């Protein structure tokens, strides 16, 4: 092993500097109260006037230029990002690398990392999170212009909220690794002979971790996967979606700098940019050196991985059908507003967006009317729409909504309550926007809504409340669900409904209205994905998310 | 839910009674010093004169009779056990059940168990362990006469040592479940509005756990799997090897009694006895209700499961090639004796039995001579041989040794250092016995020893020590290894060797001689199977062994 550079002192200081953060995160995941080391508002009152300007300038300076990453095995440069806000190509090119070279480089970098004190690895991951927080105004611009998130959502949801998920994973990595004592004295009598053994327990990482990111919300699942694998000693290859590479390129840049600053080989984190025509994910998944796969994305490819990957750790988050059941409400407008906002947020391109709203016959008309009115109130206020809905990332989502609209034309029992339509973005006139299509459905019609439609479409289904819970939880069990919602003033109804949600592995939000987005999932407090239904097998975050990313090897010998 | 019978008071008392045991086990797995709540000697000085007699009587009373288990869906009765000691059929028949009926019964029993306080589930598992300890003299007879273990080994290795592995798994189950707070108050400001949510976190078990047991050492891996799945809320189906059903039938009998005694449906634990002609394992593995599979047995079927099972939790322990490297020794006879005893114990039918002994050229002649002398010393003393070697469970192991013997006939570079031969068992003249075949091999010959030969055969390979470590760790990486052994007086050699063992995921015992069996793996102290090589993916026991057997489902609602 090479002598560490900079000296061991800097590494020790880093462990000390971030120890309080790790401790606070461990306390937070135990107590599950609200906590974060970050501020999730982009307000200049918090960050000062310069950082937003500098972040935007950094993003703009990057446009139409090669992204500077000194990766191994570069074949050529590729890039095909188009801003959903401007409609223009970003013009950024990324090194496309030979997957074998990325793997070989990770393996070359591995021994020093594997041998490093786990506490140092935790501290370096914490340092990466801090650097990424520092770079978050640039990241917000990047996420806006590849994914279509609004500025505020890109700043918060793809910044601090996502980094919190990463630090949450670090907390569990710390707990799992600290759970293993590093040495023991074993003393016992065997057949009258006193035996004393000294035992050593070594944490041995599994192998290269592959992090396959989605296009619409790349950082939120990438940070926990990255930090969980890295902290437990594994090199990581980040595989961004080809139409949303910039956020992961920024992550790779910042994290590689941290590694280099503290004397580690930056190739512990590399970036595998590919193209839609020549995807590289499966090559990496199949490589024997890749031992951990974290996937976020489509149920189609996620399901393929779930059915085919064996002998490796696989963590998935795909999608499902999120439902709202409205049995009774204390304040109809407040409930309708809560659902309307959740259905409008990022034009329903979130894994927590509701898609089906079940309403009792008595409430059907007034609730649907209030829901449409609340969506209209957002859609007709361009500044509000821009802040909430942002842009639609891909044509595919426009098509998804159009397909649904076509399928219900003249279909008995289905009424169009609200047509989807673009709104005029106040800042980006070329923005690809779409406000929600709202359909009224007279009774169960799973052929219409039992699969995820990835775009702004909401089905308002009239159904008796217990039947609605039965169908909602059946959909969760069979199609997956990440967030389910229930409104009722009847405690007996709630009490008989919650076990059904539990058995379907559906995380449930009850009677939430007001300023908090009902589909906001807070790191350290809200578990995200239960692993009990087809929406994915990975929970953010629990011990199971980290405990198998490293293994334990022991040796023992008679006490000297 | 039915009113608990007996009353809740009895359940509370049970939790209190076993709480100190669980706490002590948690302390033990943290400190990893020597600890056990049991005595692992069958001595009447410890247990009194009556229990051994009663245990033997219970076993003998069971011979040639139907085993009484009130299982659901009984098709017929089957039984094909033959004692390796007497050569006679045990004549015990077991109910063979429709697998669908076992699964349906487990699912019917599930809701009360799922809803039970995790602390009660832990206490009930602890109670099962205590009842099994009480029944251990009967169990020892059962294990002897299905597996061929000697009386003392059957008592200790398949009794307290195995129960310790079970309680160790309970300790981790307790840690993982207690790590999840059951409720939290979340308070945070959103856009100037104070939001307060009450959150509830529910532990939800995954589904039916299937425990597939091996024939030669059935209880040792079954207990941890059984208790890990059961304590975390899952029903369990025990699938014994058809030629070694009795131990698991006793386990099912005792555990079902405990469940019934405390008002739970005994069908939470059922027994799926099958026949060699009509195996049932795959039917159960493939059933969607089975969500956890614990397998111990052959690399062939274990490898099949590892390559095909997706979407379920799979824990395996199969086998590998365990090696000894002898670089230099402080006391040649002591080292040779240690290896000889390990190679003789249970006629090498253990997952920790050494198969290949690498010796330097300088040591080759004296070490091989000492090794053979030590094995002879055991083999030629019938009482000692009976206590150490026991019997050979299956004809297949006699054939394995004969096949090796045939393959080396007239092979250049291979010398027969010691012929395998039966020893005369002092108590059971019909016992199927075989003392080790010892072969001297002049240099690397992986075609001879790179696969596990399941029987008493030892290859003594002359090789330079660093090359030997390289080959031994290569075998571990590629063929699997559960226990590796090293003898050296050169600390520099040890220091450069240990990283290779670590990277191969090979648990290493260095310079151990004396009364403790070098292949003894102590629960609470020794990790068993690293999961980093083909010998299996399940570590006994770590957090990863339990953390994913349950999942977490949450609900949240505004504070009242």
Automatic annotation (TrEMBL), chains A, B:
<keyword id="KW-0560">Oxidoreductase</keyword>
<dbReference type="GO" id="GO:0010133">
    <property type="term" value="P:L-proline catabolic process to L-glutamate"/>
</dbReference>
<dbReference type="InterPro" id="IPR016162">
    <property type="entry name" value="Ald_DH_N"/>
</dbReference>
<dbReference type="GO" id="GO:0003842">
    <property type="term" value="F:L-glutamate gamma-semialdehyde dehydrogenase activity"/>
</dbReference>
<protein>
    <submittedName>
        <fullName>Phenylacetic acid degradation protein paaN</fullName>
    </submittedName>
</protein>
<keyword id="KW-0520">NAD</keyword>
<dbReference type="Pfam" id="PF00171">
    <property type="entry name" value="Aldedh"/>
</dbReference>
<dbReference type="InterPro" id="IPR016163">
    <property type="entry name" value="Ald_DH_C"/>
</dbReference>
<dbReference type="InterPro" id="IPR015590">
    <property type="entry name" value="Aldehyde_DH_dom"/>
</dbReference>
<dbReference type="InterPro" id="IPR050485">
    <property type="entry name" value="Proline_metab_enzyme"/>
</dbReference>
<dbReference type="GO" id="GO:0009898">
    <property type="term" value="C:cytoplasmic side of plasma membrane"/>
</dbReference>
<feature type="domain" description="Aldehyde dehydrogenase">
    <location>
        <begin position="83"/>
        <end position="492"/>
    </location>
</feature>
<dbReference type="InterPro" id="IPR016161">
    <property type="entry name" value="Ald_DH/histidinol_DH"/>
</dbReference>
């Amino acid at each position: 092993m090479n002598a560490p550079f900079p000296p061991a002192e800097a590494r020790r200081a880093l462990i000390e500097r971030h120890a309080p953060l790790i401790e606070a995160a461990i306390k937070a995941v135990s107590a599950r109260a609200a906590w974060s080391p970050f501020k999730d508002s982009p307000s200049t009152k918090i960050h000062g006037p310069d950082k937003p300007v500098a972040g935007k300038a950094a993003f703009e300076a990057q446009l139409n230029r090669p992204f500077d990453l000194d990766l191994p095995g570069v074949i050529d440069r590729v890039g095909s990002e188009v801003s959903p806000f401007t409609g223009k190509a970003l013009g950024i090119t990324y090194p496309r690398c030979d997957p074998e070279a990325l793997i070989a480089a990770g393996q070359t970098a591995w021994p020093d990392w594997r041998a490093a004190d786990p506490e140092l690895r935790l501290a370096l991951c914490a340092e990466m999170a801090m650097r990424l927080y520092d770079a978050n105004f640039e990241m917000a611009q990047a996420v806006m212009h590849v994914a279509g998130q609004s500025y505020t959502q890109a700043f918060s949801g793809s910044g601090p909220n996502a980094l919190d998920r990463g630090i949450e994973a670090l907390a569990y990595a710390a707990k799992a690794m600290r759970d293993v004592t590093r040495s023991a004295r074993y003393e016992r009598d065997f057949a009258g002979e006193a035996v004393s053994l000294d035992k050593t327990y070594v944490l041995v990482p599994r192998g290269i971790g592959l992090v396959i990111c989605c296009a619409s919300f790349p950082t939120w699942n990438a940070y926990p996967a990255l930090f969980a694998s890295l902290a437990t000693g594994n090199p990581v290859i980040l595989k961004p979606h080809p139409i949303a590479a910039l956020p992961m390129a920024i992550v790779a840049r910042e994290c590689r700098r941290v590694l280099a600053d503290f004397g580690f080989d930056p190739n512990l984190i590399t970036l595998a940019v590919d193209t839609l025509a020549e995807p590289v994910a499966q090559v990496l998944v199949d490589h024997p050196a890749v031992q951990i796969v974290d996937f976020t994305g489509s149920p189609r490819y996620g399901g393929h991985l779930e059915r085919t990957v064996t002998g490796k750790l696989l963590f998935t988050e795909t999608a499902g059908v999120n439902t709202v059941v409205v049995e009774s409400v204390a304040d109809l407008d407040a409930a309708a507003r809560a659902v309307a906002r959740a259905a409008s947020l990022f034009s329903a391109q979130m894994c927590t967006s509701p898609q089906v709203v079940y309403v009792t016959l008595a409430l059907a008309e007034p609730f649907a009317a209030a829901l449409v009115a609340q969506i209209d109130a957002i859609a007709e206020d361009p500044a509000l729409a821009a802040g909430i809905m942002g842009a639609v990332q891909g044509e595919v989502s426009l098509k998804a909504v159009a397909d649904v609209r076509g399928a219900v034309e003249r279909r008995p029992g289905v009424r169009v309550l609200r047509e989807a339509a673009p709104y005029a973005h106040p800042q980006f006139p070329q923005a690809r926007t779409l406000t929600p299509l709202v359909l009224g459905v007279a009774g169960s019609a799973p052929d219409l809504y039992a699969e995820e439609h990835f775009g702004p479409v909401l089905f308002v289904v009239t159904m008796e409340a217990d039947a609605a819970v039965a169908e909602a939880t059946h959909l969760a069990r069979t199609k997956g669900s990440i967030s389910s919602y229930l409104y009722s003033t009847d405690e007996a109804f709630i009490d008989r409904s919650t076990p059904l949600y539990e058995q379907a592995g559906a995380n449930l939000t009850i009677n939430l209205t007001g300023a908090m987005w009902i589909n906001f999932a807070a790191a350290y407090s809200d578990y995200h994905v239960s692993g009990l239904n087809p929406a994915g097998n990975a929970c953010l975050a629990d011990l199971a998310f980290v405990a198998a990313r490293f293994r334990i090897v022991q040796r023992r010998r008679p006490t000297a």
